[in-house]
Design a protein that fits this description.
The protein has ten helices and 21 strands. By secondary structure, the chain is α/β, with parallel strands linked by helices.
Length: 453
């Protein structure tokens, strides 16, 4: 008797991580994403016949580059991150937390585009046209070549493109756009993927640079399907503290330039302005050096920035002394405190230790380890480091001071801002700027001897 043929159950696949599951579930068991499981049966095996090419293949050296040269946006700090400007046909995704200033920045970019004689179209799906008009009036971004449309339907947006014929398109935001060709509500996985695919195809067909505003999740990643970041050409993250005016645009992906560049901005009442030299924001303005402070040089992307680390050590009445951190990596600071106490002989067991940075700067790289250790030791001994001194170096668990990358750029930035002495790891004296005295320290104990007492 022949065996009955078992029906093949349709497979389901996660659109975020690609996991195959036997049945539909609301949450992916692998990546924990909600609403990402979709039916994905085994594709039929079909032979694809050869078709007519849209254009003949040519040697790569004969491809014309003039039509794809980057055009400056007029905002120097943004051009720095983009690698020179916006490339025709490129799609840029700018993601950031609510209220950080994404719309203000892109409205300024659209205004600069209109000032240069190229028509710009700003499509908003989150605000009304009147609200954007009020912001433009406040920031001085009014121009006759800057067109504004309040739409949340993708077909209506494409209609505006045919009517306006802009040289630049800003969509604020991609999560608010929807199309009847895809299922689900606006902001869902299917809708975001469908909207992004159509906009990217329109950008490539028209040679139109498109900037998409994206939302972020609680952990700071771009909301929506991960395929969105793969489809676009450039991914930028707009970062900033609500209690600080400093804003940073950090490149995460860039097909046309460096992907590790950072641009600095200052958010003001009348708009947003670039900061070509932001190091002064991260240093305290005082005439004398106080205990518990140390200045280091960190590298954001390819840009060296001076940062001041402050520490306060006070006697504790608690069974477990408190360790508070602001602007630094708490796990990294805990390790530095342990090495400082064990290898440097600084007693911290019965004291509360508070460490912070100045100006709301976030410092996470190991090059600030030595500055944290010296700031804590300075707070304990109530002694100060020599004036106009920068401290650079990573600390290991054995107390050794390790080398960090970009030491030449860091020292050059310190010398440019008037610092005269630098504490660095061994073998870092290849290129010493004029007017800067470099002291090499092999370990933490040697560096602590520079503190009186």
């Amino acid at each position: 008797m022949p065996k009955p043929v078992r029906a093949v159950r349709p497979a389901h696949r996660c659109t975020e991580c690609g996991l195959d599951v036997a049945k539909w579930v609301g949450r992916c068991p692998e990546c924990q994403a909600w609403g990402s499981i979709e039916a994905a049966g085994p594709p039929p095996v079909r032979r694809v016949a050869a078709g007519v090419p849209s254009a003949p293949a040519r040697p790569i050296a004969e491809v014309d580059l003039q039509a794809v040269r980057a055009r400056p946006t007029g905002v120097d700090e943004l051009d720095r991150v983009l690698g020179g400007g916006l490339v025709p046909g490129a799609v840029v995704l700018l993601a950031g937390e609510p209220g950080v200033g994404k719309s203000t920045l892109l409205l300024e970019v659209a205004h600069r585009c209109a000032e240069s004689g190229r028509r710009a179209l700003y499509v908003t799906g989150e605000e009304s046209a009147g609200q954007v008009r009020l912001r433009a009036e406040r920031t001085g971004a009014l121009h006759e070549e800057l067109y504004l449309a309040a739409e949340s339907d993708l077909s209506a947006l494409l209609g505006h493109l045919d009517a306006v014929h802009p040289a630049m398109l800003v969509v604020d935001s991609v999560q608010t756009m929807s199309t009847s060709a895809a299922e689900g509500s606006a902001g869902g996985v299917s809708q975001v993927r469908a909207v992004a695919t159509v906009l990217i195809a329109a950008a490539k067909e028209r040679g139109l640079p498109v900037v998409l505003v994206g939302h972020v999740t609680k952990d700071g990643s771009v909301a929506g399907p991960r395929v969105l970041e793969h489809l676009v050409d450039v991914v930028l993250h707009f970062e900033g503290d609500r209690h600080s005016t400093l804003r940073m645009v950090r490149g995460v992906k860039n097909r046309f330039g460096p992907a590790d560049e950072v641009g600095c901005f200052e958010l003001r009442d009348d708009g947003i302005a670039g900061l070509p030299d932001p190091s002064g924001l991260f240093l305290s303005r005082r005439d004398t050096v106080v205990p518990g402070t140390a200045v280091t040089v960190v590298v954001e992307g390819k840009r060296p920035l001076l940062a001041e680390v402050q520490a306060l050590v006070a006697a504790s009445n608690l069974a477990t002394p408190r360790r508070a951190v602001s602007g630094l990596d708490s796990a990294r600071v805990a390790m530095v405190l342990a090495v400082t106490e064990r290898r440097g002989g600084v007693t911290l067991g019965g004291s509360d230790v508070y460490t912070a940075t100045v100006g709301g700067m976030r410092v996470i790289e190991p090059a600030a380890d030595l500055a944290v250790a010296l700031a804590v030791a300075s707070a304990v001994s109530d002694a100060t480091l020599p004036d106009r001194t920068v401290v650079i170096g990573e600390i290991g668990l054995a107390g050794e001071v390790r080398r960090v990358n970009g030491i030449g750029r860091r020292l050059a930035e310190a010398a440019r801002l008037g610092f005269t002495r630098a504490l660095v790891p061994l073998d870092c004296t290849d290129r010493i700027p004029d007017g800067l005295r470099v002291l090499e320290v092999p370990d933490l104990a040697t560096a602590l001897r520079l503190l009186p007492g």
